[in-house]
Each structure stands twice: as structure tokens, then as C-alpha cells.
Amino acid sequence: MHGAGHILEVFYLILAAQVMAFLFKRLNQPVVIGEVLAGILVGPALLGWVHEGEILEFIAELGAIFLLFMVGLETRLKDILAVGKEAFL
Questions:
Q1: H/E/C letters for each residue in the chain?
Q2: What is the pLDDT of residues 38-76, one digit of tens each?
Q3: Which family does it belong to (predicted)?
Q4: Is the CB of residue 20 less than 8 Å from the CB of residue 35?
Q5: How many domains does the chain have?
Q6: Most exposed residue of 15, 42, 44, 88, measured as fewest CB within 10 angstroms of its CB?
Q7: Using CA atoms, how far apart are residues 27 and 5, in angstroms rounded to an integer?
Q8: Which residue from 68, 54, 44 is spatially nearest to 6, judged by alpha carbons?
Q9: pTM (two decimals)
């Protein structure tokens, strides 16, 4: 039964993220903000549908890795050089 609870928590996270992404897309807002807010909403801070634990920690780390990867894909060296040394501070 404990494993089924983890699957249900992941389902809640994915469902909430998709709903918020849809809403934010319709409002012409960044989708990632809606997904982050969905995580806060269903997490232990508000609704408590997802509890702290190894699964939540793993998903949070995976999300941070994907976010940094996407930022890296969108960052151009030419833009960094144009800003100068302030970009490295």
C-alpha cells in the first residue's frame, strides 16, 4: 500500500502541474511559474496532498536539473559577452 501512495502523490503532482500549465498558457504567462505554483499548492505547505520524503526530494532535484538545463540551452555566449563582467557576478 505504501508504494501505491507514492504513485498517487506523483499523479497529483503531474495533474496539478498540467492544469496550472494550461491555465498559465491561456493567460499568456510563463508555464514554468504555473508548474512551480502547482508544486507549492499540492505540497506539504498548503494542501498536503504530497508529503515530504525521498520521492518529493528526488522530483525536486530532477526539476532543478531540468530547469538549469533549459536555462543553459537558452543562454547564448554572445549575450553574456555583451553584458560583460557583470554577468559573472
A1: CHHHHHHHHHHHHHHHHHHHHHHHHHCCCCHHHHHHHHHHHHCCCCCCCCCCCHHHHHHHHHHHHHHHHHHHHHCCHHHHHHHHHHHHC
A2: 988 988 888 888 878 777 788 789 889 988 998 888 888
A3: Belongs to the monovalent cation:proton antiporter 2 (CPA2) transporter (TC 2.A.37) family.
A4: yes
A5: 1
A6: 88
A7: 33
A8: 54
A9: 0.63
